[in-house]
Each structure stands twice: as C-alpha cells, then as structure tokens.
Amino acid sequence: MNNDPKDDPILFKRWFDTMGFKSKQEAAKALNVHRNTIINYESGRLPVPHTTKLAMTALFHRLSPWE
User: Fold this and answer.
1) Which of 53, 51, 55 is CA-nearest to residue 8?
2) Measuring CA to CA, which residue among 3, 56, 48 is closest to residue 27?
3) With bands split at pLDDT 50, 70 and 90, how would you rate the model's confidence at 1?
4) pTM value?
5) 15-65 residue pLDDT tens
6) Could you tell me the end-to-end alpha-carbon distance of the chain, in angstroms, rounded to an integer?
C-alpha cells in the first residue's frame, strides 16, 4: 500500500471491494474498529493508520492472528 494519505480513500475502497465485504459493519468487525471509522477512511476524513494497513494486508492474505 501507498504511504501517501491522500491516496488512502482510493486504496481503502479497492481493498474493501477486493475483500468482498457486503457492509461497512462487516469491514469494521474484520478490522476491529467502529463502523464510523470505516466511513471516515473511505471519505478521507481520517488517514488509514499504518497498523490498519498492515491488518488489511494480513486479512487480504488470509493470515491468522499472531499467537
């Protein structure tokens, strides 16, 4: 993923669509954030934090949590 915050909404939407989420609530649950956070990422009101981008990548690759 790109590190330029202005690209975050585009990259986030691409990830959302690629993952096949049916709702913002489903994506929020996967990332362990509130639904409003998803809305803010998609709109660009909030930049997507690096740790969230890492989680998005892990989910994309179907990785299990580190234990």
Assistant:
1) 53
2) 56
3) very low
4) 0.88
5) 999 999 999 999 999 999 999 999 999 999 999 999 999 999 999 999 998
6) 25
What's the CATH number of domain 5-60, 1.10.260, 2.20.25, 1.10.10, 3.30.420? 1.10.260
Is residue 5 a contact partner of residue 53, using CB atoms and an 8 Å limit? no
Going by C-alpha positions, the residue among 4, 2, 13 that lies closest to residue 43 is: 13
Residues in the chain: 67
Of 61, 40, 59, 43, give the one whose Cα is nearest residue 51: 59
Residue-level pLDDT at 66: 85
